[in-house]
Amino acid sequence: YMNHERTFQDITRTVSFYRGLAIKFEPYVLCNGMQSKLINLHGTIPVPYKGNTYNIPVCIWLMDTYPNHAPVCYVKPTADMQIKVSMFVDHNGKIYLPYLHDWTPTQSDMVGLIQIMICTFGEQPPVYAKPKTETPQSTPYPTQPYMPMPGASGSNPPYPPYPLTQGYQAPQNYPPYPTSVYPPGMYPPAPGGYPRPAYPPPPTPPSSATGSGATGTINEEHIRMSLLSAVEDKLRRRLDEQYAQSHAELDILQQSGQELAQGKQRLEKIIERLDNEKIELERNIVLLKEKETELDKALSRLGDQEPIDVDEAVTTTAPLYKQILNAFAEEAATEDAIYYMGEALRRGVIDLDVFLKQVRSLSRKQFMLRALMHRCRQKAGLAG
């Protein structure tokens, strides 16, 4: 079974309410001629009729796609019973009910189906007793009250009904019949708008029948209270479903609210950090503008001064330091002259003999200048 958990729950609940049903696992012939082993509930259901309770034999087959598809129901008459064909039962005993036609997996179940069967069969019995051709050896059926037979007239005596099984007592704690806010003999409106057929009026028993309203175990008041209780239970279940759904939605909304609150805190921290960075940037901009102003003043002040001679830009405090400065400048110039002599040789401006002669002379001069700088630094007491 596709939904074995739901199937097990519905079967267990149905059997607990209706003790006359038994669970069987038997082969079932499908429409295409193939056989498939399916579960069925086989037994009797108590049907109140004219103040008495009769056990109607039924067989309810559960398809392997249950509860997505409605069960297949049959009336299974015994050897001394005959099927009464009506708009709800055909000559093969197959049951046709608007409840089966409007079956929905979420709102329909086995208990509700049997309750509809009980209401329907209480108005139009699906079976009647066969006529007796010989004297029975066992205890005869009671003559009153009886279930009407099709085609019975005043000239022909009615046949006795199928009696209540002697070894089975109908339990008194069956679930209530569905919906009482609709007129008697009418189904409640289907969810999809399928019109419910009206129950045909029950046949009038012969005048010789004794009144059973005073002695019956179920009267109209009991039925009305049962219907009210059924409506109350159904409304309570609907309210419980709505409450559970609303509670789940509320939990989701609360979780979303917590996530939004956390996101708000993170955004507030980011905004606070951005504000601090903005204040720091504004402070740096002010500082840069002050430095720029100072640079502009320094440039304007330097622009007002007279040009400085390069040779007089650097002065020394002692003749020895001046000698070191002059020697250093000449040595640097000699280094540059040697470099450019090499460039001239490479480009072919001078030949090798001229290059060697000039480099020898410049190198000797560079050596003397470095020796002079070294001697002056020693005299001045400078490091190195």
Automatic annotation (TrEMBL):
SB domain span: 318-384
Coiled coil: 236-291
Start and end residues of each stretch annotated as Disordered: 130-157, 193-215
Molecular function per GO: ubiquitin binding
CDD domains tied to this protein: UEV_TSG101-like (cd11685)
Listed GO CC annotations: ESCRT I complex
Keywords attached to this entry: Coiled coil, Endosome, Protein transport, Transport
Residue stretches of biased makeup (Pro residues): 193-206
A Pfam family the protein falls into: Vps23_core
Sequence ranges assigned to domain UEV in this UniProt record: 1-131
Protein family (similarity comment): Belongs to the ubiquitin-conjugating enzyme family. UEV subfamily.
PANTHER family the UniProt entry points to: TUMOR SUPPRESSOR PROTEIN 101 (PTHR23306:SF3), TUMOR SUSCEPTIBILITY GENE 101 PROTEIN-RELATED (PTHR23306)
The protein's name in its UniProt record: UEV domain-containing protein
